[in-house]
Amino acid sequence: AAHSAGSTAPQPYDPVLSKQQFRSREIERALGRALDRGEFQIWYQPQHRVADGKLIGSEALVRWSNASLGRVAPNEFIAIAESTGFILELGRFVLEQSVEDALAMPPDLGIAVNVSGVQLIAGDVLGDVKRVLETTGLPASRLCLELTESVLLDGSGGLIETMQDVQFLGVSWALDDFGTGYSSMGYLSQLPLEKIKLDKAFTMSLGVDRASLPILSAMSDLCRGLGIKLLCEGVETEDHLAHLQAHGCDEAQGYLFGRPMCLTDFLSYASSQIQESAIARADLR
Ligand code: C2E
Ligand code: MG
Ligand code: MG
Ligand code: MG
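^ thats the input. predicted complex w/ magnesium ion below
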């Protein structure tokens, strides 16, 4: 390790590191067969408009359950899939499956799909999106692609052009996990973004960190000025939501509304929302 300065002795065997490496290799091996074995599922997490609480769509989140590894979190296996290139296949599967599932949802709901920077750089996102829209007939305006901001700074050659080509199809882009350390204000106006998603770490700081509310209100002013919608992730409490309402944040996603759920559960969630708003309308009469 770097802190053992002055010592030239051989590094001692590090059981922690090798345990991690062993697990990565196991995951890598299991990932290769997981698609054929049908081990992936897509779950859906509701996204709501802040102003009136209306359900506006959902984010597709991949779930993996393997016989020997159990459930593995995307935060663990996505990075491995990116390093092996398997993300190209997995990303296509997620896109196809979630767009197909969106056809079963109410037609006014959007569907947001995470796209890895590796797909943008090494894959054919434009071709994949074109094909899936053609074969399913889903209106392009219902599809949003989420890209995490970390990919934008490294090797952005051709990346903005691809984003623009996809946008030209009528599909929109959201910048995911904003505020996690790569933020560059000037960059925002160059990207074809419909939406910025503030990371849940920021939402957790609302009302706790003194700077959080001024930052929120500056962010929502900035986004309004650029014509970009602002969504907060990780909205867990009524307090969080009240802050978003007070500072003009457009959309919210988090456990307060619902956790990621299987398609069947999401469909019942969506129909309960429709009933609720019908009751609200009846109350107004
Ligand atoms: P993300 O795109 O930022 O997704 C939001 C994550 O926050 C999800 O974790 C979700 O379950 C979690 N979350 C949602 N609401 C709350 C909340 O109120 N409180 C807390 N504490 N957490 C909340 P998940 O599903 O484990 O996904 C983690 C990350 O893995 C995602 O972050 C995304 O970057 C990546 N990922 C997931 N599915 C895919 C996929 O299909 N393709 C790619 N490329 N990446 C994916
Ligand atoms: Mg996302
Ligand atoms: Mg996010
Ligand atoms: Mg995240």
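The radius of gyration is 21 Å.
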